[in-house]
């Protein structure tokens, strides 16, 4: 099914409502739901990505207030009555296009777990702060390394993941280090921790916790003066990062490698907008950089 085209300027909202959502729920006909969502989201001029799988739904989309409300109502009527749903705002269109995909998993761990039957204990942001005060707790950031680059919780372990599929191997390699400890995990919106904590429970870990609603809910609810968060939170849209109150951050994304770049990074000699940054300068050839420059030139000409 073709991807939706950009809406006309007259139909674009003054402020885009960005809705991040997921729910684990067995689906009898995921392909049918995918088709229904494709038609609905295209009609509503939504942009972003929705993933449908036999285990449920996951995604982040953006549109007008009325459009995101209609999508939310459709999902509730379709049986997603425990949807983890968070909203924030963007002044610019945060995604280029609409994608509604059918996959085997709504977040890919690659090993079988049971997030509906066996999962860690959920913690509110206030409870999370109290847990972080316990020196015997191991706090694990389950996100990818480029996400951790933008910000993380004080004292959190960074597994240095390039993809979530690597997490089971990291757990196996550090199983003895985690044994007998209380383990607390967090991620952007909570979905990866549904599976990471389920994995640990499956392996016999008893004291496993995770931050309900993820970093996004924490930054939305916890005043900055009481926050244990350091830096900004990477998000998978045009804003690149958000800060406390879910306001847009100061980072921009490298168009070559995707890493979030601080203002200091953009002053580095290896930074060239649309071409390279300090993280990827040495990983691309001169021919590739020339291609990126041409792409950037064409992008600037269209703008």
What would you note in describing this structure?
By secondary structure, the chain is of the alpha/beta class. It folds into three domains: 16-102, Alpha-Beta Plaits, CATH 3.30.70.100; 121-230, 3-Layer(aba) Sandwich (Oxidized Rhodanese, domain 1); 260-301, no CATH class. Helices cover 29% and strands 22% of the residues. The chain has helices at 30-43, 65-77, 125-132, 145-150, 167-173, 175-178, 191-202, 214-221, 286-302, and strands spanning 16-24, 47-53, 56-63, 84-90, 98-102, 121-123, 137-141, 151-153, 182-186, 208-211, 229-231, 233-234, 241-242, 252-253, 260-261. The longest helix has 17 residues, at 286-302. It starts with 15 loop residues before the first strand and ends with a helix.
Brief sketch in words of this structure:
This is tRNA uridine(34) hydroxylase. The protein has 303 residues and is an alpha/beta fold.
């Amino acid at each position: 099914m073709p991807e939706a085209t950009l809406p006309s300027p007259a139909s674009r909202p003054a402020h885009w409502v960005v809705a991040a959502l997921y729910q684990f729920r067995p689906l009898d006909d995921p392909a049918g739901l995918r088709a229904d969502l494709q038609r609905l989201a295209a009609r509503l001029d939504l942009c972003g990505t929705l993933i449908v799988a036999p285990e449920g739904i996951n995604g982040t989309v953006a549109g007008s207030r009325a459009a995101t409300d209609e999508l939310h109502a459709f999902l509730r009527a379709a049986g997603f009555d425990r949807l983890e749903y968070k909203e924030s705002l963007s002044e610019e269109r945060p995604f280029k296009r609409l994608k509604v995909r059918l996959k085997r998993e709504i977040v890919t761990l690659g090993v079988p777990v049971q997030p509906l039957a066996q999962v860690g204990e959920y913690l509110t942001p206030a409870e999370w702060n109290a847990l972080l005060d316990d020196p015997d707790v191991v706090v694990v950031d389950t996100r990818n390394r480029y996400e951790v680059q933008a910000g993380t919780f004080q004292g959190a372990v960074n597994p240095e993941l390039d993809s979530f599929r690597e997490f089971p191997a990291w757990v196996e390699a550090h199983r003895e280090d985690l044994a007998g400890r209380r383990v607390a995990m967090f991620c952007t919106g909570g979905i990866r921790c549904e599976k990471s904590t389920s994995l640990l429970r499956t392996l016999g870990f008893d004291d496993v916790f995770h931050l309900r609603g993820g970093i996004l809910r924490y930054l939305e609810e916890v005043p900055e003066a009481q926050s244990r968060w350091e830096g900004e939170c990477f998000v998978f849209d045009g804003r690149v990062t958000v800060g406390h109150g879910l306001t847009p951050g100061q980072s921009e994304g490298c168009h070559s490698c995707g890493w979030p770049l601080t203002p200091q990074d953009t002053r580095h000699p290896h930074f060239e907008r649309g071409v390279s940054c300090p993280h990827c300068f040495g990983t691309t050839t001169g021919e590739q950089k020339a291609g990126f420059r041409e792409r950037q030139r064409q992008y600037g000409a269209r703008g």
